[in-house]
What we know:
Layout: E1 6-10, E2 17-20, H1 22-34, H2 50-61, H3 72-89, E3 93-96, H4 100-108, E4 113-118, H5 123-132, E5 142-143, H6 154-166, E6 175-179, H7 182-189, E7 194-198, H8 206-210, E8 216-218, H9 224-235
Parallel strand pairs: 1-4, 1-6, 4-5, 6-7, 7-8
Antiparallel strand pairs: 2-3
Helix pairs in contact: 1-3, 3-5, 4-9
Bound molecules: magnesium ion.
Amino acid sequence: MANTPKIVFFDLDGTLLRSQEGHVAFNEAIFKTFGVPGDIRTIRPDGKTDPIILQEIFDTGGHEVEWKPEDGATFSAHLKECYTRAISEGPTRVRALPGVPELVRELSSLPDLCLGVVTGNMEVTGRLKLQAAGVGEHIGPGAFGSDSANRNDLPRIAMERWSTHLNLPVEPRHCVIVGDTPRDLEAARSNGMKCLLVATGRYNPLEDLRKLDADCLLPDFSDTRVTVDALMRLFG
Ligand SMILES: [Mg+2]
């Protein structure tokens, strides 16, 4: 890499892709791991990490279960098994949001630009979803809900992984977070990174996101040129 790398960290759900009937595999993995009938549809998961989502599900359902980091490996193994089956045999479908395949292809062709991920999904689910959405090959290292329950920890972890991966120093000003919720913006801000928000999430329409102080706000990624230009401006 000839120049300082620029890294775009994409959120997954509501930003790059959307799952239909994704709750089936998630709920199955909860039952297999914790033995309780937790249901992700009872809470609003957007922008949260999987450990936080699990605890909210347990609390909302009155299940006397507490998430512990040591449950992560077992839960991830069950997620892998359940999602793989639900995606290949149904009912779960994962689709890239409009314009995302074109955008990811275009960005990955640019010199000195790297694509990573910062998501609340456990790594195993994040990678499965990216692959199912057809964009996995273009997305490199990142940070996941399996790295920390606190989303604000994730941008720093992702940045350090890229620094190791490239064997180069990477600074927050070389990173942009792209997401669909106020939590993506908060995670960017608490790590000194810029943030582009896109209004393709389920719960945060454009008019709500407009009230926030994101560095850039787009209705969607349907226009590749507009999105690429907006990102390049954020890197200065
Ligand atoms: Mg999201």
